């Protein structure tokens, strides 16, 4: 039986021992590399938009002025195609959400969904399956094909234009200071001496004059599973120092079939709350609030002096410090969870990283850093440990009671959750994580459903379960407030509005 090919690639930062002369030769490549990235990206986007063709790293390059060798130009194209492909997948996700939340007819939605998945965003013509509907309403794609209506193709193009402008901007890959060098321009070799562990041979702008960069490995790199790849990531920092990362490729771990399912909710005070009641990472927000004061002060100073934030090295280093801290904290917490529990799957929502007490600028940094760190870590443990990830719609998870299902804004008061129907009390973050777990267990993922549709479904389920509508419970609360002139208090029977409900006859309607 043929051996399966490695499909998981992970990079590891190693300490290099290159002298100043070698570093200068490597950094001199960056400017040419960035200019080539800009030209190649323009060529790939032109073919994608004008001809409707997909990104392809083997497409012939149109001639352009550069000091890079043909091998370097191929490395540039590989990096550009990889970056644009990632952008396209993010755009597809955003488009799926827009289609699902639209009021278009179901068949038009199905056509758009199919074309979006096929990458036909700028196709001049495309084919679609003929849909077959079962008696229960399930839609199936038949082998028969039909031409996609021109108005559907135009609509998909308009949606992509909106996404490009407002949601997922096309990345400016030429601004990256990282060069991803494949084996044609960067060869990795084992050292034959004990002074260094590895060497990377990097081609330069001078033909026949490569530089050899000595590297020192570490325990984490040595113990990591996988085969060492003939590939190097070289990052040039603002001070013209370099960082070198090597890549190991391995076969992904099979999905775990034993263990427990756990749900995570991004907390208001703790970093994560689990449905078991764990409150993990309590030190993150105090640190962020302290750093936020320094960030606000620095931002005000630069704006007062009319210094652009993006061009200020101190401000950029400050942001990087925040991102690194958040990433390390998230990795530490998830690693700790894996040590405590035998986890086979993790359920999360589309996390909202906004937190009370932090500035808008800090919330934006935290959102970007936190979302990227969590996605990277969850992808990592899926590849290396077989822990799968499930996502649910985040709408109203903080307001829905995980016990009775009653959903109301006043159920949650900052860190405290108290159901206004059944009287259930617990930590608000724990309540959110239990609601996430409940939705997954009931099969209510609903990733691309609008908030309004989610609320209608939650109210419908509550009414079917208890025989009461949301308006009935709200009216009972209002009548009780009018009579008592104070906030409802739970009683021993667990119903927040029990006295009023008994008097109005609502209790008799409960199953």
SSE string, helix = H, strand = E?
EHHHEEHEEEEHEEEEEHHEHEEEEHHHH
Uncertain spans:
486-511
SS strand fraction: 15-25%
Biggest pleated sheet: 7 strands, antiparallel
Which value, in Å, is the CA radius of gyration?
28 Å
Instruction: Please tell me the overall pLDDT.
Output: 85
| Helix content percent band | 40-55%
Q: Which geometry do the CA atoms define?
A: globular
Structural class call reads alpha+beta
Spatial order of the strands in the main sheet? 4-8-9-1-7-6-5
Distance between the termini: 60 Å
Overall number of strands: 17
What is the count of helical runs? Answer: 12
Structure characteristics:
alpha+beta; 7-stranded antiparallel sheet; 12 helices; disordered C terminus
Question: What is this structure, in a nutshell?
Answer:
This protein is of the alpha+beta class and 511 residues long. The chain is built from 12 helices and 17 strands. Among the domains are: 260-392; 409-432 and 448-509, no CATH class.
